[in-house]
Amino acid sequence: MQDIHSSFADYASYHQTKGNKWFHRFGIPMIMLTLLGMLARVGITTIGGVRIDAGMLLIAVAVIYYLMLEWRLAIPMLVVSVAFYLLGGWMPMSVNVALFILGWIFQFIGHSVYEHKRPAFLKNVLHLLIGPLWILNDVIPVVK
User: Model pTM greater than 0.85?
Assistant: First the structure.
């Protein structure tokens, strides 16, 4: 497993232009919000009377990965993830679907129009988890 500096450097190499970065700063949170909102509707099991859904599972797996990379970003990402989970779960499914599609359109506009480079996750699927952390690091600069 790469450390946070290597992961961010690899991810950043696919996101050099201002236009691509702009589209990602809006698209990634949109995708994250709506994905969690949609997954909140997918029940997995009930443990001790508590319903466990796919959104909770994704947050748990992502936060474990983030804790291994950089705990100072993992904690605020947990807070953001829970807020997105609650907001996305509250939003109508049709809004989640529409914003999810728009978020992906933003990603592909950024890469095709501005970056002229394939998305990083096509090389390394873990970049789907690195992207949100990279955006958060812009807001809360922990990793320099």
Answer: yes
